[in-house]
Known about the structure:
The chain is α+β, with helices and mostly antiparallel strands. It is built from six helices and five strands, in the order H-E-H-H-E-E-H-E-E-H-H. The strands form two sheets. The protein has a three-stranded antiparallel beta sheet. The chain has a two-stranded antiparallel ribbon with strand order 2-3.
Amino acid sequence: MTEKDYNQQQRTNKAMEKQKVAEQKVDVAENKKTEKKVEEKVEDKKTEIKKENKKQIVKKDDASVNGISLPISTKDSVAICKFVKGKTIERALVDLELVSKFKKAIPMKGEIPHRKGKGIMAGRYMTKPVGFFIKLLKSLQTNANVNGIEEAVIVEAIPNRASRPYGRGGMKRKRTHIHMKVVEKKKLKMGKKKWKKELLVN
Length: 202
């Protein structure tokens, strides 16, 4: 084999290698383009799904919130629910903040010390349970705003005893479930029967 033939073989091999590298680069560029197209299609589908979901969201006439296994007394929560029921959310929040500052007492029944206040004999300043109720009312307000409810009045405030776990020394701890529901003030003026019929229809 002569030197000339050997050099020609080398040249052809180098040319083949260069051609392979160029083809690989082209393939990589094409793969990137296809990946970008696929990603764009996926993003378009996601935006379409989000738009459809927004259209499908139906606004309700009422809003509700649930507090599950809150570490408060059921007796205290009954008194606070009575104190809050029938008020607007804003009014209830103002009153509960006054209670937490020891400026207003929550009326209660039983052998409880007397407190100053209009239409009240016995009452208490419950700072810990009031804090949980303030958090629930704030989340209820956001739910009402999402449903477009203006002047939301608390229609339901129901406390229920939850399962009580054992603490140190075999003592059972306090646990309570709380359910609160809100309706627009205009709906209440219609009357309870008409409002209930509308809810059943919707």
